[in-house]
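Figure 6 in text form: structure in, sequence out.
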């Protein structure tokens, strides 16, 4: 993606920036360190973003990186209402001794950084 140029899609698409690509790589390394599943699809978005998707059985996760620190997550799990939330990836840079519940807005739940059996 770092080699994409403006108009990469033939319709004036903007390429992802270096800092944005670095954030996506940082997320991938974080997930790998947690024994997470690799995305099933990674693609540039025409407005300069990057999309990552995970399909785990009937569960579907779609993350769009919009800036190096902010992404939007869409989750679709059978039997539940689809969810949309904004994610601040600065939280991934917290010291490892800070429990996730200390910084989360809601109840802990399964996420893309957990392996599903």
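Output sequence:
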């Amino acid at each position: 993606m770092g080699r994409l140029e403006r108009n990469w899609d033939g319709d004036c698409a903007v390429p992802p920036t270096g800092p944005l690509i670095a954030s996506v790589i940082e997320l991938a390394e974080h997930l790998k360190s947690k024994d997470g599943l690799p995305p099933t699809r990674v693609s540039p978005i025409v407005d300069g973003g990057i999309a990552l998707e995970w399909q785990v059985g009937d569960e579907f996760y779609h993350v769009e990186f919009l800036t190096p620190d902010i992404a939007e997550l869409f989750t679709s799990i059978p039997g539940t209402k689809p969810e949309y939330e904004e994610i601040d990836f600065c939280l991934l840079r917290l010291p490892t001794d800070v429990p996730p519940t200390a910084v989360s807005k809601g109840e802990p739940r399964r996420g893309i950084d957990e392996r599903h059996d």
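Caption detail: Residues 94-117 have pLDDT under 50 and may be disordered.
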